Amino acid sequence: MYIVMVASECAPIIKAGGLGDVVYGLSRELEIRGNTVEIILPKYDCMRYDQIWGLQCVYPDLWVPWFGGAIHCSVWFGFAHGRKCYFIDPHSADQFFNRGTYYGCNDDQMRFAFFSKAAMEFMLKDNKRPDIIHCHDWQTGLIPVMLAEIYKHLGMQNQRVCFTIHNFKHQGIYSGQLLEATGLRRPEHFFRHEQMGDNFNPHLLNIMKGGIIYSNFVTTVSPQHAWEARFTDQSYGLGHTLHISQHKFDGVLNGVDYDIWNPEIDRYIPARYGMGNLDDKYRNKEALRDRFWLRKDYKPIIAYVGRLDDQKGVHLIRHGIFYALHNNAQFILLGTSPEASINADFWNLKRHLNDSPDCHLELSFNEEVSHLIYAGADMFLMPSNFEPCGLSQVISLKYGTVPIVRNVGGLVNTVFDKDHHHSKPLHERNGFVFQHSDYAAVEGAMYRGIRLFYDYPAHFRELMYNGMRYDFSWNYPAQRYLGIYDYIRAK
Known about the structure:
There is one protein chain. 35% of the residues lie in helices and 19% in strands. It contains 16 helices and 17 strands. It has a 9-stranded mixed sheet with strand order 3-4-5-2-1-6-7-10-11, with helices on both faces. Strand 6 (132-136), helix 3 and strand 7 (160-165) form a beta-alpha-beta unit. Helix 3 (142-149) crosses helix 6 (207-214), helix 9 packs across helix 12 and helix 14 crosses helix 15.
């Protein structure tokens, strides 16, 4: 099968979050299974050029219709750790992708509308006719719209679109200028509630909604999050749209790349280990304490790695630090916040705890250090307010680090409570889960983890083994996506 991924990120060259990991990991697994996969991306000035091999201009004269004229683009090709990537490089005074950032500009909707238009023009003019165009998040939500309304009449009538939503919070809501720019004229058609008209403001268009309505199939990144998107406020107003599209909507759990996140082969940790030599994990615990000047004592290390923001339950992370310290545990945190007030609060907290021999807050992000934390910690705290899929808890399981998570999103599909998940036998339970987003709830789960560590170390070790036995690789998700691709090709 011939598949073209269109996305705003692909790890490790363009990565702002989990989207980049998914595009890379899924593409790689699909290729392993014998499919041809190409990825179309913007050519940002700030992407990791050192991670691209053989970058060269392969299509120097792509003219992309835009408003009443056209913008001249070059298309570059290179390999990103083996993945075949095309990069759209517009030569325009707008400097769409020469901003020193991937996201966060006032005209992001127009920037990615242009990227979507350019991707379609490139496929049309370079005679690329994939079986499947797989689009990701609102940045590419206009592609299924343009395919159905414009490009199927120009020779692309056999292409099918799968649209994956990684984050419902950002939907690409903008004015009708999008229609004029991209050639989707007929505002009276597209502003209709049944098409792209925003569900709350009839004077605006919703790009993500357009992607849902016009795609052949829509996925989100875990089965639980698919349910939450339809029946709770997690869809940020798109619940009705998903309800009328329920026949083509499902959740597919993201995978994790075990070539990178695997303690048996991890090049970033001092002692490699697996289920057969689990005691070597504790050499990494010693190295982690050396790295952050923590006291060497018989105590569990509880860790957090990731963004510090409301989505991640930052108030519970903060509370969890003090609960750990007051209950004979150590705590290590690695992460930063996109919000200045949260960053300032954690810097104050760092100064307050600076002399503690049982705590270290590393307010930055370092991939190499994150590997050591996953390998050296005993437990991993993840108290998210919402979590479409989550990768940290899956990585923790692989490293024998017991997750403590809230009962939401992809955490529901991956972590099964040791004491209360009665539909799973004991040997399939792998962590601690709490329900409510309050202090008492997170304390209850942390208490159970700490007490098991001290009072029943053999049972704690079994919990570590249970987690390591799970396979959350891309193996099953890739097979699931191939089934979806076959389903929409047959329609």
